[in-house]
């Protein structure tokens, strides 16, 4: 199925993000991933997305991603949306990869630039921004396209309006859906969603939901992104920082309230960053009942 057909008017759809086990021959991890995805099936997600390693991937590495998609497709009846990071990749490798995933019946792509290693000069690369990939897909392929959005602005861009202009350019170039970076303060998410809607380009927006389960892990992630934690959440996390069971409870309770508010405000979609762990997502969705 195509992701643009999966968003339903007056309903908040669900999607889940997983990452591929490092080694596609690792059957234990692969089986675990299949189990996780099977257990999430009961929540009726519209689609599942799979992350892609960043920067300078060569065709050998594409093979691993392709193999994982192929295995998931053969085990489970999910609409899949592979991520694809273009920076540092040649046009001919991008085209070869597209041929391979098309052969699996994949109809959707999350078109990304990817992070640039410090000090790397990308000025001579064929793909310098995600929009270059969106344009290529629109001109030569037939995938539905999602792109990344940043409710508080991308970390590299100090000018929020400019960052939003680049997002608008990606949508005008052909993106159907925007998936946001993890966000915890709904005021940013709602403002962002309303701004995208004001462009009247018919793009859907899914909010990136990160169930917090580990104090160190979340602050490491936050240090690499522009994301605000609401004061109460910050205080609760600090209070329980030495006990991950309590951190998980705080994270789950927070996410339930956050998602309830987004659903009540008619958000198009909730995109869960599962980090290949279904248990917090199960607990959140059991309470949320959407
Ligand atoms: P872009 O849209 O190209 O934007 C990158 C920066 O360039 C921004 O600061 C923007 O303001 C600026 N910019 C955009 N267009 C232009 C232009 N035309 N001229 C000048 N400046 C411009 N990373 C992975 O490695 N693998 C993944 O699987 C992955 N999945 C992700 C999923 C989601 C939902 C999100 C939100 C992010 C994901 N990322 C992933 C991280 C992403 O690759 C990084 O955030 C990366 O730094 C930016 O990617 P982008 O597609 O947003 O880039």
Descriptive overview:
- The chain is of the alpha/beta class.
- It has a single domain (3-288), classed as TIM Barrel (Alpha-Beta Barrel), CATH 3.20.20.
- The protein has eleven helices and eight strands.
- It has helices at residues 3-6, 27-40, 59-75, 91-103, 130-140, 160-172, 186-198, 215-222, 231-239, 244-264, 278-288, and strands at residues 13-18, 47-50, 80-85, 108-112, 144-149, 177-182, 204-209, 269-273.
- It has an eight-stranded parallel barrel with strand order 1-2-3-4-5-6-7-8, surrounded by five helices.
- The protein is globular and about 50 Å long.
- It starts with a helix and ends with a helix.
- It binds flavin-adenine dinucleotide (FAD).
SSE blueprint:
Elements lengths: L2 H4 L6 E6 L8 H14 L6 E4 L8 H17 L4 E6 L5 H13 L4 E5 L17 H11 L3 E6 L10 H13 L4 E6 L3 H13 L5 E6 L5 H8 L8 H9 L4 H21 L4 E5 L4 H11 L2
Helix pairs in contact: 3-4, 10-11
Bound molecules: flavin-adenine dinucleotide.
The site of flavin-adenine dinucleotide (FAD) has 22 residues, from strand 3, strand 4, helix 5, helix 6 and strand 6.
Short description:
With 290 residues, this protein is an alpha/beta fold.
N-to-C series of helices and strands: HEHEHEHEHEHEHEHHHEH
CATH architecture: Alpha-Beta Barrel
CATH class: Alpha Beta
Name the average pLDDT: 94
The biggest sheet, with number of strands, parallel, antiparallel or mixed sense and barrel status, is: 8 strands, parallel, barrel
**SS strand fraction:** 15-25%
Give the N-to-C terminal Cα separation.
Answer: 21 Å
Note the quaternary state here. Answer: single chain
Q: What is the CATH topology? A: TIM Barrel
In the predicted model, the low-confidence regions spanning at least 5 consecutive residues are: none
Name the structural class: alpha/beta
């Amino acid at each position: 199925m195509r992701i643009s057909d999966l968003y339903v008017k007056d309903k908040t759809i669900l999607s889940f993000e997983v990452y591929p086990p490092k080694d596609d021959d690792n059957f234990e991890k692969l089986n675990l991933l299949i189990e996780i995805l099977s257990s999430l099936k009961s929540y009726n997600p519209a689609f599942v997305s799979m992350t892609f390693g960043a920067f300078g991937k060569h065709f050998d590495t594409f093979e691993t991603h392709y193999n994982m998609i192929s295995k998931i497709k053969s085990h489970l009846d999910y609409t899949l949306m592979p991520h694809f990071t273009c920076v540092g990749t040649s046009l001919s490798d991008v085209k070869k990869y597209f041929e391979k995933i098309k052969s699996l019946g994949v109809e959707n792509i999350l078109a990304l630039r990817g992070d640039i290693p410090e000090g790397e000069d990308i000025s001579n690369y064929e793909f310098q921004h995600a929009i270059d990939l969106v344009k290529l897909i629109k001109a030569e392929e037939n995938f539905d396209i999602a792109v990344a959005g940043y409710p508080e602005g991308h970390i590299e861009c100090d000018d929020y309006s400019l960052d939003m202009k680049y997002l608008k350019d990606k949508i005008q170039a052909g993106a159907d859906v925007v998936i946001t970076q993890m966000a915890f303060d709904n005021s940013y998410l709602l403002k962002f969603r309303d701004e995208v809607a004001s462009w009247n380009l018919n793009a859907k927006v899914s909010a990136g939901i990160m169930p917090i389960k580990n104090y160190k892990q979340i602050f490491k992630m936050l240090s690499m992104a522009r994301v605000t934690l609401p004061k109460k959440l910050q205080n609760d996390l600090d209070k329980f920082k030495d006990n991950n069971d309590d951190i998980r409870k705080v994270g789950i309770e927070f996410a339930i309230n956050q998602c309830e508010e987004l659903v009540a405000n008619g958000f198009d979609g909730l995109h869960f960053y599962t980090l290949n762990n279904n248990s917090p997502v199960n607990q959140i969705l059991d309470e949320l009942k959407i």
